[in-house]
């Protein structure tokens, strides 16, 4: 990956088209390059935090970050940007500048993910051009592209706390779980018999869990949107009256549910297999 990433990975001739309008856009990218772009962070998680590895990661962020984003945009796997950078944030040392760089890039992706995922040139035209002037990504990369639009008085100074507005609901929203492109994932999921008050993604992004006023928990496959009985999950829940708040869903060796049905009582459940629809036990 280090030796083969470059500007305009898809040989795109016009910035006026979306990726979907260009047939076979990804064919010019070698398969081993695509694989590296998809999974480098997964391999990094298994490495110790040592100086040679740290230097390689720092060099990648310093010089090839935007070209890596190009590959993921071209392949229409934009969700891997946030998954990879989140893994990098976890891997990096607390005081390492790499953590700051990765966190800044996560803000960049959240703010401009929609245009950048739909049209690769907008990594530069919409993302880099409008990134806050005090952000690391703007200060580090902007001057490398002298033909970009320059905003002197209207450019944000730092990342705004509001990084996107999502439209589409026709009634009140009680719980959210974010896709990094800010686009809906599949069709609406139907299965509860009352209001849904809690939702969440598994750490690997493959499953969605929801809790409802009907006193049930449902698990869904994020890819197929089907109700899914799933092994090797841990769920930590807090029950207060009938409202269910989901705090964490992570992969583990066995399935455990911890609930608090009142300020004074905690109940634990353990079972190796989690059914697709489970009563809360109260």
From TrEMBL:
Record's keyword terms, sorted: Membrane, Transmembrane, Transmembrane helix, WD repeat
Annotated WD repeat ranges: 189-230
Spans through the membrane: 233-250
Pfam families: WD40
InterPro entries assigned to the protein according to its UniProt record, in alphabetical order: ASTRA_WD_repeat, WD40/YVTN_repeat-like_dom_sf, WD40_repeat_dom_sf, WD40_rpt
Domain of life: Eukaryota
Protein's recorded name: Uncharacterized protein
